[in-house]
Every structure is written in structure tokens, then in C-alpha cells.
Amino acid sequence: MMSMNYSNLKSKADKYRQILSNTENYRQAWNDGLKDLIQNQLNKIIHEAGLEAEVELKEDLNNLSAIVLSLGTEFSGITEDTGKVKRPFLKSNGMLIYQQLFNGKIMVSMTHPLIEGLGKPGTPKQIEILRPEELKPPFILRHTEEFLKEIIAWEDFDDDMPESQPIGFQTGFQKSLIQENQ
After folding, report:
1. What is the domain extent for residue 84?
2. Is residue 145 part of a domain?
3. Do 26 and 133 form a contact (C-beta atoms < 8 A)?
4. Is position 82 within any domain?
5. Distance between CA atoms of 73 and 81, rounded to whole angstroms?
6. Which of 3, 7, 65, 116 is 20 to 30 Å from the Cα of 74, by its Cα?
7. What total of structural domains would you count in the chain?
8. Do 72 and 52 meet the contact criterion of CB atoms below 8 Å apart?
């Protein structure tokens, strides 16, 4: 009779138990100070930058909490003329989100501004996923800067983007030869 080697299976079972333990530790880290750190850093950033925003803790689901830096909602300045009444469209100005995942890690994401009725909400843009011990104040500052960079690009949208390189005749080397000969 042939004996079976269970060392590979035991290794996977050990890894599985370690992952489950990590999840519990990550969730505990959130409650033991990480959520306070995130909220405090975001509030400090708002204050230092003079940013009109608010930080909100959403704890509807245990172990799936979120901290949201919201730039708020306002009238977009766009109205629909319905005949008798002009109906204003609201604009959500975007959010930076720190969300606990099912495994206790923290997903950092953002939403772009959205004007109601003029588009469908996009999928939040994922910035990164971190273990609680990796999330330090400089990261929160970097996330906020990246978020604001995206919001600024959305708000300042125009067609002044660099043109893409044309493909085909009169491109690259051939184009420079033609220009020299003119």
C-alpha cells in the first residue's frame, strides 16, 4: 500500500489558519485606533488645506465600516426648464473612501463628481488596498492629494489634452524629412 504525503496540504491548512488570524487582527486594529487615526488625519488635512469637506464614519455593517471624506453636494448651476418651473440639477462633488474589506484590509478608493441626470455613477476608482499596519499619516496625505488631483482634472475638463501620435503616412521619421524639404 502506498503512503500519501500530506505535507503540502498541511502547509496550505497552516496558511489558511494564518489568513483567518490576520483577518481578526486587522479588524481589531481598525477598532483599536486605525479608524480614529484616519478620521483625525483627514480632519487635519481639511483644516490645513482650508478645504470645504466633511469626514463621516459609516458603521452600518460591523467589520465593513467606512470613513468618507466628502466634498459635499451642491446645485450644479444647470437647470432643466420644465415649462413652468426650472428644476436645478444637484452635483455630488466626489468622495475619498477608506473601506474595511471582508478580510480586514483597507481599500482606499474615490468617486468622481457626478451631476444628477447627466450621467450614470461610475465605479469608484480604487487607489490601493493596505493592511492596517501599512496605513500611516503620509499615505493618507498622498491619497488626499491624488484624490484632489483627479477632482481638479474632472472640474477643469477640456480638450487641451496632448494629442495622440498619428499612425500611418507622414509620421515619425518620414514626417521630419518632409518638413525639412519644405
Report:
1. 16-156
2. yes
3. no
4. yes
5. 21
6. 65
7. 1
8. yes
What's the grid cell of residue 159?
480638450
Residue 108 phi, psi dihedral angles, 5° rounding: -105, 125
CA distance 159 to 8: 57
Q: Is 163 a member of any domain?
A: no
120: Cβ contacts below 8 Å, ≥ 6 apart = none
Q: What share of the chain is helix, strand, coil (3-state, %, to 5)?
A: 40, 25, 35
* 181 is a domain residue: no
Using a cut of 0.90, tell me whether the model's pTM lies above it. no
Apex CA 101: angle with CA 29 and CA 16, to 5°?
Answer: 80
pLDDT digit string, tens, across residues 7-61: 999 999 999 999 999 999 999 999 999 999 999 999 999 999 999 999 999 999 9
Q: How far is CA 99 from the centre of its chain?
A: 10
Residue with C-alpha cell 488626499?
144
